[in-house]
Structure formats: C-alpha cells, structure tokens
Request: fold
Amino acid sequence: MISIDGKSYAFSDPVVLATLAGIALAVLVIFLLVSAVRAAGRSARMAEPLLHQMGQLNQTVQGLGQGQAQLSGGLESVSKSQAMTIQTMEVRLAEVQRQMADKLHESAMKSARSLSDLQERMNDTLHGSSEKTTKSLTQLQERLSTIDRAQTNIEKLSTDVLSLQDILSNKQTRGAFGEIQLNDIVSKALPSDSYAFQATLSNGKRADCLIHLPNPPGPIVIDAKFPLEAYEALVNAETKEAGVRALAALKTAVRTHIKAISERYLIEGETADGALMFLPSEAVYAELHARLPEVVREGFAARVWIVSPTTCMATLNTMRAILKDARMREQAGAIRAALKQLHRDVELIVERAGKLETHFDQARRDIDGISTAAERAGKRAIKLDNFDFEEIAPDASNVLPLAQAERKPRSDT
Reply:
C-alpha cells in the first residue's frame, strides 16, 4: 500500500503502476545522463550526439513531467471520485443501517406482540383447562354421588327382591301378591262402581274380583292363581327327566286351578257362563301357551279363560266399552229428553234471530230515509247558496214576496 496526501493506493492499481514506471524511467534517464557526463570527458567526439541525445532526453523528461502532471490530475480525479464513492457508500451504509435498525425494531415489536399473544393464549388455555378440569371434577363428583345413590338403590332393590322372594315362597303371600296386582289393573281399567273385590257369591265362595257386567253376559269372576313352584321346577330342571316331571306338575297345577274356578264361580243365573283365571306372571303365561296348549284348550272347554297382566288389561278395556254402551242405553231416555229441550232452545234462537233481523231491516230503512233527507237538504242548501237576488225580474211570477214565503207552509217531504 502507498499513501499519497492521506490517500492509500494498492500496488495493483494501474495509476500506481504507471507512476512507478514513470519514476523508474526518470531514474533510468538520470542514470544515463550521469553515464553520458562521465563519458563526455572520455570522448569529445561523442559530444554532439550526446547533446542531441540530451536534448531528446530533455524533451523526454519534459514529456515525462507533463505525463506526471497529467498523472497527478488523474490521481486527483481518482481521489475525488473515490471520495465521492466513499461518501455515497457511507450514505448508503447509513441508510442500510437505518433500515436494518427499523427492521430490527419492527421484528422486536412483532416478537413482543407475538410473545404477548402467545402468553395471552397460554393464559386463556390454562384458564380454560382449569375451568374444564374443575368442571370435570365437579361432574365426576356428581357422577360418584349418583353412583352412590344408585348403589343405595341397588342395595334397597336387592332387599326388595329378597323380600319379594320371601313373599313368593309362601302360598298365602303369593296369593296376596297376585290379588294386589289384579286390584291395581282392575282399578286402572274400570270405573270404581263397576267391580267389587272379595265379593261373596250365593254358594258362599269368595271371588277375588267380580265385574258387574250387564246381561248378557252378566257378572264375571276374575280369580288370581300363581303356580310358582311348578314353574320354578321347570325352569331349574337340569335334566330332561326333571323337565318332563316339572312340566307334568305345571300341567296338573293349572288343571286343578281351572277345575276349581269352574266349579266355584260359574253359577247359572247369578254369574256369567265364563270366568277369568289371572296369572300375575307373563313368563308363566308364555310358557303355558308355548308348551301346554292343550291345557289352554281345556280351559276354553271349561269356560275358564287364562289371562296375563297384559291380556287382562285388554280384556278389561273391552269390558269397559261394554259397560259404557250399557250405560248409554240406560241414559237413552234422558238423552232424548235433553235433545228435545235442545231442539226447543234452537227453535227459540231461530225465532229471536228472525225478530232481530226484522229490527235490523227497519233500522236500515230508517237510516236510508235519513240519508235521503240529508242529501235533499244538502242540495237545497247548495241552491240557496248559489241564488243571486239581483238577477231576479221584478215581475217574476214564480218568486213570492218575503212575507208570503214565510207564511207558506213547508213541504220538505
């Protein structure tokens, strides 16, 4: 590096190389002059050529001086151009630095906002997670409470099932269970005055329920039976032989009940010619129809119809329709009298409506007369308003004096 007037130039710069070449050339010329001066003393014959060469060298030196001056001007121009370039570079560098600072500031602000948003979202997420966790814990606690209550209900139900099992294990309590279920079904299906529980018949037998149907068919008896032992033996049979024995026992028990109901509750002239045997278990009823249809047919032959809770409700609804029809027949006279009174009331309404229509017609005619009179009065008022007294001839025969006009009677109609 070479420093000139505070400026630094590299050796590879063309201007520096040209300058160094000029300086070397000048040194060479000086060396040649010195050599020529030394040689002048030795050879006088060479003086003129040397002088000539000295003149040429002088011209060459002047040319080198001019080249050096031009080189100095070029170096100054290069220095100014470099100074301007450096200044421009400094300005651009300052601009780039300012832009970089702005971008860094903007990036910092964006990062701060992003961090703030992220923190806010994290807070919201944590808050939501906390609320969800609290809600989930609350729901879990409620479900645990529900499970505790369900467990209590299950324990109570287990106790009730054991109690029911105890009830069904005794014939008397089992019969009471069937009677209670029968009472509940009958009381829901029929009016309270159409049946009687534990009714005593003329033969001294007491029926579980007596339905007061009209003749025909007459009062019909419903008796509750529950052959539970035979059915449980059939269900719990582990071998084919045990199943056959249990099925035979169930057949015998049902036949016995059918015979007892037929002998006790079918009284000619007092009850209907048929009775109902109520089985309080749908399972027993289904098993009986599925595996012992001949027993069901024997019941039909004995005029004893076997019903379950479902079929009993359907039968009672049919009886309800029969009772309703009978009561409608009983009330036919009262209904006819009420219809007669209703017809008379309708006739009075029609008569009074006719009178009211007559009054309306008279009022309408009066209103029309009033409208006509008002229209006529309005026309006369318009004529009087447009009447010009100055245009009347003195000898007009159709105009009366004022005094005579006042004495003349009015005829508006």
